[in-house]
């Protein structure tokens, strides 16, 4: 296995600072098409590759097929790439596993915002010495513009992320992470009897992960999720 950290990803050309696209530089990784974020890894097709965020499987990783990731870059601390044998906890996949780990709670409030074809922001920080929160999301404001300029195309997407953590004691923590996404893509064709709408993609998912972590005196780590 190998690890790409956030600084490496931000300075990497061609991946738009997207943590999940960054694996394209790894040996044995071949994109299905140039610039398209779906990969053959050591011969395994994209459908046999598992994508995870903090150990939670992400069923739809990129908006409207090949757009930005549903997990924003500021939320990711590092990406672990398992091109061959991987830990059994990830489940059954014939191909590789890519698992992104979230950034740890900061000691002071901080945030990031971005403006592209969508607008997004992420804010996180401590409420007190035990409680911390994180809130973020993206919304494709340009979808309305695209639909107005190209009347026969309907498109839209968005995502959200939230986390609340409570430090029970030193080395002991309870947290709740939730994230989700929606995507819509359709075309409208003129037919003899009127306009016909064909929906190409209409999907959404929502995930919630309640987790208890404890560092053991023996040097090990216990987790229940």
List keywords for this structure.
225 residues; mainly beta; seven-stranded antiparallel β-sheet; five-stranded mixed β-sheet; 6% helix; 51% strand
3D architecture notes:
6% of the residues lie in helices and 51% in strands. The protein has two helices and 14 strands. The chain has helices at 6-10, 142-149, and strands at 2-5, 29-31, 39-41, 50-53, 56-57, 76-82, 97-102, 110-115, 119-126, 131-139, 153-169, 172-191, 194-215, 221-224. The strands form three sheets. It has a seven-stranded antiparallel beta sheet with strand order 8-9-10-11-12-13-14. Strands 1-6-7-4-5 form a five-stranded mixed beta sheet. A hairpin with a 2-residue loop joins strand 11 (153-169) and strand 12 (172-191). It is globular. The two termini are 24 Å apart. The mean pLDDT is 87.
Summarize the structure.
Strands 8-9-10-11-12-13-14 form a seven-stranded antiparallel sheet. The protein has a five-stranded mixed sheet with strand order 1-6-7-4-5. A two-stranded antiparallel ribbon has the order 2-3. It has two helices and 14 strands; from the N terminus they run βαβββββββββαββββ. The protein has helices at 6-10, 142-149; strands spanning 2-5, 29-31, 39-41, 50-53, 56-57, 76-82, 97-102, 110-115, 119-126, 131-139, 153-169, 172-191, 194-215, 221-224.
